[in-house]
Design goal:
heterotrimer; A mainly alpha; B alpha+beta; C mainly alpha; A: mainly alpha; C: mainly alpha; 2 domains; 2 strands; binds iron/sulfur cluster
């Protein structure tokens, strides 16, 4: 049996961490307030690139949530009892990030007072509409799953774990479909987008959870089995390699069409625009660095695993960004087969408001996790496998 | 569902009508939209002549400009169709701000090979038969009417900009800030819109709807009416005798990005 | 039960706070006067009967909105007077020439801010900015850019 216990949460360090997250969160909300007052002109968006950092934030937070829930359900689905000790905390984090995702949708849309229309007027052909149902049901399923864990109801927990994994995959496939099904630009419309979203969801979920666990166990002075963490880090590394493979496949597939030459050249090799930098430095570079760190002996230490997780979490954000923006930054082929004007590439640089919004929301998720540790029995007393 | 109060009103009026034995004389207002399928033909030859004249008056040789200058010139070009549309539809133009500049119609230059001569034509929302924007809109705020016009119902729109991303023709623009500051004059029949909603050409829906309901035979959008060259032809595709039907039947017309299957209802003649 | 005292005191405070306006009105008597509206001259009636317009004008406007934007019906036929009206807000402003002198008086009095006028221009705003009239606009363009005979 794994014993779960609340943390004390009275030390100065605990309050300091909560205060930092709170301040960051308020910074994000202040940025949102500015955006509500002045309109979307405070962001870096433009008529040609109407989706940017904010939309990447939606995909990212949903992905992190789905990934965490999948990790949380590992023990239930595969019957691996040694992973059970962290299933509660991962589930709490998943719920906190899905709330952050909903809020980031609210931040991104231009007319939030009409937001409930998404639930009232269902459009069966819109992927976004499917998602409005998937997201809300996802939250309910995750919540019930968490409750079942608190109640120590093993059969129900197991059934719910299977359902939760299925639903998390479904939810994030829907999110991938929002981008992947759009056929108006050369760089969108790839069937690889959806599986890639799932893989990067698990990667980013693990990437955020591993440093978080390492820090919480260290700061609460509870023992943590490093071998278990290493197993997770290995899963993360393997999936990161898979992700790199997907990048290569997708880029080659797009580049093979002669008509896409201009677009792919801008997205990958034109360093005058931010897109190529993001692709090579953050997305591919981050993933490669993670894999390299995990291959060295240093990767087995706490620092190694934590830093690798952190880097890959940012790399996945870069991936979301480069899925969304370069396709819009390159002009759409308005008059096919002809040279046409106006024809200009729009470089998209996010403004501080957009950074503040996503940082604020992630801080909010972390704050919820910290407070959750204090008032619910989420963390096990010992993060180790019991010898029987 | 009629409310109780409306029912009472109805009851009162019908008794009054019976009492005075006066038959209800309803003005004839046309409401059956499915009889129409509005479409437009752009005669590119005439537009090219028109724009070349404007450029000649300004003393500009389009071919000799750099790419940036060409872009800027086209963005700020205001032939009658564009100028009238901006005024009639409350379009907040921002000539100095390409990032947030809103438009409904814009002028495109195209040529098939490097040595060919530039052809100019206006590009507006193509009123697709299978519109990508309607497909993706999560609230059915964008929807296609039975007469083929794709309408954005701003009362419902959440401003997610999914339609802008999905539209293959960049036909939509978004109000990134309060549009009021950028309007010189206001046409009260058209909303001035707020910040955070998309806008697009709707074939001057407010105008042709009114005229149709008033019984006008061939209602026309503003750009069609003001064009000095009569380069734009507007009409009902379901009426075999309308001018558009005849042109579409007999001349060489193309639709932009036909490969996507959106089936635009704006045709380009001699492109 | 512990702290019964506090709970009861809290309930009393809450009840007093909620019913405060009633007491206030009772104490002050009929001091609050309803707003006076500027009514259009030479007009016999509104779209429907007066009482209906006072209580349900918003429902009528929502109905017009559905008719105009979603169904393409340009005219609404008055059930009381059997007269057609355009299903647009400009129809209202043809008689009520100002928002501030008519609609705004009541709305400000009861403290509602209809969101219609975030997107629709009030006559006051149109007057301030200058009005575009479509017929005049088209005539103006015809004068400025006379038709070119395309055959020549
Ligand atoms: S539609 Fe008429 S006014 Fe507009 S560019 Fe063509 S010819 Fe000129
Ligand atoms: S051109 Fe674009 S905005 Fe217009 S109907 Fe087609 S997809 Fe929609
Ligand atoms: S911005 Fe409005 S019209 Fe466009 S897809 Fe979103 S809700 Fe629909």
């Amino acid at each position: 049996m794994v014993e779960f216990k609340k943390i004390d949460g009275r030390s100065n360090g605990y309050w300091l961490i909560c205060a930092i997250f709170f301040v960051l969160m308020m910074w994000g909300f202040y940025a949102w307030y500015l955006q509500l007052v002045y309109g979307h002109c405070v962001t870096g968006l433009s008529q040609r690139v109407p989706w940017g950092f904010g939309t990447a934030a939606i995909c990212y937070t949903i992905g992190a949530s789905a990934g965490s829930l999948i990790v949380s359900a590992l023990s239930g689905v595969f019957g691996k009892t040694e992973f059970k000790f962290f299933s509660r905390s991962a589930c709490v984090f998943a719920l906190a990030t899905i709330v952050a995702a909903m809020l980031s949708i609210m931040q991104d849309i231009g007319n939030p007072e009409n937001a409930l229309n998404v639930l009232m007027h269902y459009n069966p052909t819109s992927v976004f509409s499917w998602n409005s149902f998937l997201y809300s049901s996802y939250f309910v399923i995750g919540f019930v799953y968490l409750m079942a864990q608190f109640g120590e109801k093993h059969r129900i927990t197991k059934a719910l774990a299977v359902l939760a994994v299925a639903w998390a995959v479904l939810v994030h496939s829907g999110t991938g479909g929002i981008v992947g099904f759009v056929y108006s630009t050369d760089l969108y419309h790839s069937s690889l987008t959806i599986p890639m979203f799932i893989v990067s969801a698990i990667v980013s979920g693990l990437g955020l959870l591993i440093p978080m666990w390492l820090l919480t166990f260290k700061w609460t002075n509870r023992p943590l089995d490093r071998n278990l963490m290493w197993v997770l880090a290995k899963i993360m590394g393997a999936l990161t390699i898979l992700l790199l493979y997907c990048f290569a496949a997708e880029a080659l597939d797009t580049a093979y069409v002669p008509g896409n030459a201009g677009a792919i050249h801008m997205a990958l090799f034109d360093f005058r625009y931010p897109y190529a930098w993001d692709f090579w430095v953050i997305q591919v570079g981050g993933c490669l660095l993670t894999v390299l760190i995990l291959l060295t002996p240093w990767g087995k230490t706490d620092w190694g695993m934590g830093i690798a997780g952190f880097i890959v979490a940012i790399a996945v954000y870069g991936e979301r960004y480069s899925l969304i923006t370069p396709g819009l930054g390159y002009p759409k082929d308005l008059v096919p087969g002809m040279i046409f004007r106006p024809f200009w590439i729009v470089p998209y640089y996010p403004s501080w408001v957009e950074y503040a919004e996503i940082i604020g929301l992630m801080s909010m998720a972390c704050l919820v996790y910290c407070i959750g540790l204090k008032i619910f029995a989420i963390l096990p007393e010992r993060g180790e496998v019991e010898e029987e | 569902m009629t409310s109780r109060r409306e029912f009472l009103i109805l009851l009162a009026t019908s008794t009054a009508a019976i009492a005075t034995s006066k038959a209800m004389q309803l003005p004839k207002t046309e409401v059956d939209l499915s009889k129409y399928k509005w479409a437009m033909v752009v005669q590119v030859d005439k537009c090219t002549k028109c724009i070349n004249n404007i450029l000649k008056k300004k003393g500009i040789k389009f071919d000799e400009l750099s790419l940036d200058k060409q872009n800027e010139l086209l963005r700020n070009l205001r032939p009658p169709c564009v100028a009238a549309c901006d005024l009639a539809n409350n379009v907040p133009r921002m000539p100095n701000n390409p990032r947030f500049d809103c438009y409904m119609v814009r002028i495109i230059a195209a040529k098939s090979t490097e040595n060919a001569e530039w052809r100019f034509f206006p590009l507006m929302c193509q009123e697709c038969e299978h519109p990508a924007c309607v497909e993706v809109c999560p609230t059915k705020a964008s929807y296609k009417r039975p007469d083929g016009i794709v309408v954005v119902d701003l009362h419902r729109c959440i401003g997610c900009r999914y339609c802008m991303v999905a539209c293959p023709y960049n036909a939509r623009t978004f109000t990134f800030m309060d549009p009021l500051e950028h309007l010189e004059k206001i046409n009260p029949e058209v909303p001035i819109r707020k910040d955070g909603v998309p806008m697009k050409c709707e074939f001057c829906r407010w105008l042709i709807d009114m005229e149709r309901c008033e019984g006008v035979k061939n209602p026309k959008p503003v750009c069609v009416q003001v064009c000095p060259y009569d380069a734009l032809v507007f009409g009902n595709l379901k009426d075999p005798n309308s001018e558009v039907s005849k042109i579409v039947k007999t001349s060489k017309v193309v639709r932009l990005r036909a490969g996507l299957g959106t089936e635009p209802k704006v045709f380009y003649q001699d492109l | 039960m512990y702290s019964t005292k506090w709970v009861i005191a809290g309930i009393i405070v809450f009840l007093v706070a909620v019913t405060l306006p009633v007491w206030y009105n009772a104490a002050m008597g009929e001091q609050i006067t309803p707003p006076k509206l500027v009514l259009p001259k030479n007009k016999k009636h509104c779209v429907e009967s007066e009482s209906y317009m006072i209580s349900d004008h918003m429902e009528l406007l929502v109905k017009w909105r559905e008719m105009n934007v979603r169904k393409g019906e340009g005219f609404y036929i008055s059930k009381t007077y059997d007269v057609p009206y355009k299903t647009q807000l400009v129809q209202c402003f043809q008689c009520h020439k100002s928002y501030d002198d008519f609609c705004g008086r009541c709305h400000n009095f009861v403290g509602v801010r209809p969101y219609c006028f975030e997107c629709h221009a009030t006559p006051d705003l149109v007057k301030q900015k200058g009005e575009v009239n479509v017929t005049q606009l088209i005539q103006h363009f015809h004068q400025m850019y006379p038709k070119v005979n395309s055959t020549s």
